[in-house]
């Protein structure tokens, strides 16, 4: 392979270029490469480009390598990459006349472009499965807590009462959109570059569609130059991974706050908590903290990928391979965030009594009081808003700790101050307006936190989850069927 050159690769070249290329993901690269090798051999025989007996010998040698495992193979960085190591070993075991025929009609460029898509597809399927599991857990919890009243916040200040189920359903909806983006990316990813050669296809009558079918692809990346030039699927998926971790991070921010003693809304099972090396009383939400940091890592990978491939020629380049290191890392971080989130959610301990108590100890029900003044007292909303603002000032000035300590007398004082002549509200109306649970019950507008509406949204979200799960399963099934077909075809030739 290096006949064009008169020297072996320099040691520093081997150390910093070829060693990471070969050993960075040896197991994953080896599995994908052997899959492509077998599909290519089957196609070559079917197209009468390669004699069946030659393919049989090569396939048996590949089977023997699989039995040994990639880490037992005599791999050397002097041969630049994994493919050349496998080809070299084939030629040593079968002779150059036989072992040297596997690469007929193929280049490393289309080989690795195909491998990258196979590996990305497997990563995408794993991440999607984890994402579906997190969505299912959130919806189970949302349904269970459809009546768990809590304070809803804007600007991290008490705003209006909602339920914990309403909050969890919101997160599930955000993740459903994130999942949709990844599911939508699959058809653009699951296209086969094999047969493109180095950039201009080949003079051999290869059947690109057959190779794609054997590998479980839905079709071809058609233009041969585009096949080897682009890794845009990676950027698209990395953007999706970043958004997944972003949604999760925002949820973990809230969970982090709510596990503090100052809030006391949530506790953690011991098996998902950490401890302090110095302070024996501590129970730290370590997994929650780790998930909060993930968007920074997935975003940095996306930025590095774009920077590495920007202003490169639209053809095969080493920059593509370098950039894909960041794809692998970003995918791993997204998968970790989802798996950690699932165990955190299952390990949360919800203090429903504390949540509802806190909602009564702030002024989050005052919006409903203003609305009641409009509905029952005939005030314009802006006047009612002014009255309730004055009421808040009066209550705080008297040292009241929340709406539960406000009575009709104080409300009448605020009305007299801001809207003299307006009729004061009866005590029963004031009490109902300031009750957090009643606030939630009245919010039955589409998308509101009323328990019945939350349950309706959960049911709607479950139907979407079922559809997404079915799509994911169908794709997994198609991949499995293709793998079985490839195994049968290659096995038949090797027999």
TrEMBL record:
Ranges for domain Fumarate lyase N-terminal: 47-293
EC number: 4.3.2.1
Domain Argininosuccinate lyase C-terminal, residue spans: 363-440
Gene3D superfamilies reported in the protein's UniProt record: Fumarase/aspartase (C-terminal domain), Fumarase/aspartase (Central domain), Fumarase/aspartase (N-terminal domain)
This protein's GO CC annotations: cytosol
One BP annotation, GO: L-arginine biosynthetic process via ornithine
Compartments where located: Cytoplasm
HAMAP family, A to Z: Arg_succ_lyase
Name of the featured protein: Argininosuccinate lyase
Organism for this UniProt entry: Neoroseomonas oryzicola
